[in-house]
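Retro notes, item 3 of 5
We never archived the inputs for the erythose-4-phosphate complex last cycle. Fixing that now. Sequence and ligand:
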Amino acid sequence: MRFFLDTANLEELQTGARWGIVDGVTTNPSLIAKEGVPLEEQVRKICDIVDGDISAEVLATDTDGMLAEGRKLAKIHKNIVVKVPLIRDGIRACAALSREGIRVNVTLCFSASQAILAAKAGAYFVSPFVGRIDDTGWDGMSLIRDITQIYRTYGFTTQVLTASIRHSGHVIEAAKAGAHVATMPFKVLDSLFNHPLTDKGVEQFLKDYHKAFHDAPVVR
Ligand code: E4P
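Structure as it came back at the time:
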């Protein structure tokens, strides 16, 4: 399973990249706006930090506009994946861009039927938003299970990119469901490290060693 950071914040990306476990980045217009730097400029900076798939979203909502923006974004860097919304014009744009060899992430997916459309349009990724579904009182993770089952049945090559992840439980469930990718905010990635028994164990090991050897250095 690949881990992506769902952020446009350069410090968070630098920290994640240093850990050596970040395989890519997803951005959206809201995340870019939060950083106060225009989309293309910020995406270029992100490409310099993380060597992996970087999703950059179009702002147009009509097919021609999406195609123009998508082609421009794809030229920024070989790692760019063009993100389009799962609307009629977006699916048309996805089909056209995919035929040109440009990789597309179809975003804002909230149903299995929408995920089938993305796969049929040749999407590289489909992004089902689990947290936003949970917010409506439904089970977001059951959508991931449905999509992975359908894609497996028909041999669709579109990868399931679990998005709108809110906590570590979502990451575990997405992995169990066979999602190809989990994209998460920095705070969720950071939380995956935590276990009180790990901290307790590290403390105890060091205490025992230093007690036995009277604080002698480990390596002379
Ligand atoms: C995915 O690519 C989106 O950027 C993201 O996961 C949306 O998550 P949110 O529901 O926390 O805004």
